[in-house]
Amino acid sequence: MLTKDALKTICEKLGSRLEAELILMAVLGLTDRSQLTLKETEPLTVGDWERALELCVRRENGEPMAYILGEKEFFGRKFLVSAAVLIPRPETEVMVEWAVELIQQKLAGGETWQVVDVGTGSGCIAISVALLTGQQVLGVDVSTEALAVARANATRLKAEVDFLQSDLLAQVEKYDLVLANLPYVDRGWPWLTRELDFEPEQALYAEEDGLFLIKKLLKEMAEKVMKQRENAVLSAESSSEKIVLLESDESQHLAIKQYAEELGFTYIGTRELIIGFKIG
Known about the structure:
The protein has helices spanning 3-14, 17-28, 33-38, 46-60, 65-69, 93-108, 124-133, 144-157, 201-204, 212-235, 253-262; strands at 71-74, 77-80, 115-118, 137-141, 161-165, 177-180, 242-247, 266-271, 274-279. It is an alpha/beta fold.
């Protein structure tokens, strides 16, 4: 079978020429679609065709292309992904943009920040922020499997990021800016797609209408700030302000804002799915 005939067959099965091209590129080890065009009149080996059909069946069953290909682009860079981590999404890039702005403001004033990415997953947020600012970033996750993927991405992209296994901020001593794309999906939402069934439940769903872990993080931060204030009074030192940027569904923002303000946080703004607060 010629490559162009294989492409046509897979395209008919999936209803997407782009996905058909990506599958054949993965099978043939190609990095550019133009390379595939040059091979259109070349025959596929039996092994390559069987492998292409395997990947095609996985996609027909609803598995996301990112898991089939083993990578996903985020902020202009390709990140390794596996079933142990959430697939990086374009909407999360807004958090990176906002964090970079905040960090650059601090750097312009001669200050540095302790930046922590909570629930780092693939490491896409921590690594992107580190590469864009030159700032040291700490990525934490409760999952050892996710941390392995994050470390592999940091090595691959040559990013100065440290990683630590921690349940939220439990093992983190210092931080000034917290970035958190925690599980916030409510299982009862009617718009959930079957592709989500392939992503790790631990990284996707949360109780209390999807807000359990977000509330837990905010409470941890508020409690640590209270202790810091007490220590500052005893030592005559000033306590520092903390900022947190959270990703959640827009339908959750009001509830998060109300809860955060009850804990003593001050709302600093919303950008699409990202909501920000400060405390200190």
